[in-house]
Amino acid sequence: MTDSTDRTPEYEEGSLSLVGAIALGTGVMIGAGIFALTGQMAEMTGNLFPLAFLSAALIVSFSAYSYVKMSRAYPSAGGIGMYLQKAYGPTLPTAFHALLMYFSMVIAQSFLARTFGSYTLELFDGENRSLLVPSLGVALLISAFLINLSANKWIQGVASVLGVIKIGGIIVFGVVGVLIADSLEMEVSASSPDASLSGFLGATALGILAFKGFTTITNSGSEIKDPHRNLGRAIMISIALCVVIYALVGFAVASNLSLSEIIETKDYSLAAAARPALGEAAVWFTVILAMLATAGGIIASVFAVSRMLAMLTEMKLVPHRHFHMPGSIQKHTLVYTIVLGLLLTAFFDLSRIAALGIIFYLIMDMAIHWGVYRHLRHDVGANAAVLVVALLLDAAVLAGFVWVKATTDPLVLVVAVVGMALILLGEWLFLSSRKSPEDNGHSHSH
Fold first, then answer.
1. What is the pTM for the complete model shown?
2. Would the N or C end of the chain have less CB density within 10 A of its end CB?
3. 172-182: per-residue pLDDT in tens?
4. Closest Cα to residue 51, out of 175, 182, 199?
């Protein structure tokens, strides 16, 4: 095995259709968002949680502007890593923020895996949830790893089939849930949390986590057919689909459970909402739907994030060791991605996984907007006012989310700060050690 074999990612140009790209994006979004975030958002903002989903959709629509402009100009298998390099060059800010995105995507996989475990246990009378939930999540991640060793067309096929099933099933759940409800009003008790501005902003931040899967599409840029045209279309169609589905399901849950019940069952609120509305058969339907959705989401996410890390390695922005593993660098990054996901799934609960993911993602997202505004807006034809609004909206929801966590779970903020400090230090040491005339002249284009 030669070093050149290890370091050459294999990108299959034209191997992903527009429908396949939409399936990848919606697969990550729907799996992460609707099944586990509903209860957590209700815990933060009370009876306003359905509006928090819509608020998140508005902010993500502004955020998507930068990605659409960049994807049309620079379609790339490295996606966000390549966009950051276009804005900041092969520098520490590029490497740091690209790794924030990488880790936020790995965190999303762990979030999906534990959601899978939480819903699956609703079919059984398992008492030891603290052990069984991560165990089921670990088993799902290992299955996703095996599927991702296969060819792109199989991954696309599996994601597309699961995407169609879960989108259809969730729409059925939402429509039926709204139709059979006595009213769309949610019962609110005196002990329920009061709505506040910081709580609403915090819930909106979590809602953004439910939409951020659209960035998965950018990581498959060089593999999508006619990427200059289809990348932007895939992003906007994915977001639009999720806006409709989240709004529908949010109102269905709110009309069939009281606020206290939604919060109590926050890790599996859709299954809990199905029980009083339609009985045990509906619980089975919802749980199986959740299992398919989270499984499809993990397959799609692993597919994209391992390719992003491969591109960062090819760009010589992150260190790489193959540890005597056979195959291409994409296979190696796939292993690293799964191992990190397994560790997070085993040791972190859902709310803390979600908190880490949204902090990392929003900081990276702000770096993208600033980079486009400061360095690339003329090159990609971006409107400065839209970029500034996107930056301010991100800053507002991040501040609200951090404030809520500072008063309820400060440990997760400590973990986030320490994690970012370690990433920054590690990247500074790596980039300082590898500077040479060859590296200084290194550039990449895909």
1. 0.80
2. N
3. 877 777 777 65
4. 199
What span, in angstroms and rounded, lies between the C-alpha atoms of 170 and 275? Answer: 15
Whether the CA torsion 264, 129, 52, 200 is positive or negative: it is positive
> 331-361, pLDDT tens digit by residue?
677 777 788 888 888 877 777 888 888 999 9
Backbone angles phi, psi at 147, to 5 degrees: -65, -40
Q: Are 71 and 235 in contact (CB under 8 A)?
A: yes
What CA–CA distance (Å, rounded) separates 159 from 179?
A: 30
- Given a cut of 50, whether residue 440 has pLDDT beyond it is no
For residue 425, the model assigns a pLDDT of 93
Cα 377 from Cα 8, distance rounded (Å): 31
Domains of the chain as residue ranges with CATH: 18-184+191-315+325-431 (1.20.1740.10)
CA gap 332, 322 in Å, rounded = 6
Give the integer Cα–Cα distance in Å for 334 and 145.
7
Helix, strand, or coil here: 416?
Answer: helix
